[in-house]
Amino acid sequence: MESLGTRQVYANPWMTVREDPIRRADGTEGIYGVVDKPDYALVIPLDGERIRLVEQFRYPLGLRRWEFPQGTAPDRADSDPLELAGRELREETGLRAGKMIELGLLDVAPGMTSQRGRVFLATQLTEGFHERELEEQDMRSAWFPRADFESMIAKGEITDAQSIAAYTLLLLHEHSQP
User: Fold this and answer.
1) CB 120 within 8 A of CB 80
2) Confidence (pLDDT) at 76
3) Which uninterrupted H or E stretch holds 22?
4) Which H or E run contains 123?
5) Is 117 in contact with 129 (CB distance < 8 Å)?
6) Most buried residue, 3, 70, 129, 170, by CB count within 10 Å?
7) Angle at 125 between CA 99 and CA 166, to 5 degrees
8) CA gyration radius for the chain?
9) What is the pLDDT of residue 134?
10) Model confidence pLDDT, tens digit, residues 90-115
11) How many CB atoms lie within 10 A of CB 95?
12) What angle do CA 136, 127, 52 make, to 5 degrees?
């Protein structure tokens, strides 16, 4: 597929939307809509057999959802993934990590967005006060036993694709350890 140009059709502090005229391999032309968002960091706070989740209202779904702490830098800025992970963990949960390990990379929805995410495992945790942004004021945070988290996924109570994929990266990491 060949890009023949690009045109921004919408922008706000969190994302831009563009339309790109394209030429397919067979020579036909079309248009591709792309949502550009900055890369995000997702953090799995792990304390023994407990994991920390946050719950917030997800406007596009009209539902409150449990998920791992995650987010992007303000105003579509690029940010160092490790620094961003520490900031998101602190903002959303109040936790500080003594140790962070990068587990992998996730593509959110590569058929429609350029956004990618780095997944981190946070351990050696200390409690503190959260520093939530305005949009996060209704957020809740709680510890869950891993068995309960897995049960919530199986029951469809946790449906955040990034959180489920990140947990898979954690399991793969744990299985690779001696």
Assistant:
1) no
2) 62
3) strand 16-23
4) strand 116-126
5) no
6) 70
7) 70
8) 18
9) 65
10) 999 999 999 999 999 999 899 999 99
11) 20
12) 60
Q: Are 121 and 44 in contact (CB under 8 A)?
A: yes
Are 108 and 34 a contacting pair, CB within 8 Å?
A: no
What tokens does 80 get? 């160092």
Does the model's pTM come out above 0.85?
yes
Tokens of 165: 């994929």
C-alpha 164/C-alpha 4 separation (Å) is 36
- Structure token digits, residue 12: 């706000």
pLDDT at residue number 12: 92
- HSE-up of 74 (CA within 13 Å, CB side)? 6
Judge whether 140 and 66 are in contact, CB under 8 Å.
Answer: no
Cα–Cα distances in Å, from 24 out to 6, 16, 34? 15, 24, 16
- Tokens, residue 44: 């799995």
| Angle in degrees, 0-180, between the axes of helices 146-154 and 161-176, rounded to the nearest 10 | 130
The DSSP string of 51-118 is: EEEEEEEETTTTEEEEE--EE--GGG----HHHHHHHHHHHHH--EEEEEEEEEEEES-TTTB--EEE
Nearest to 24 by CA among 50, 46, 1: 1
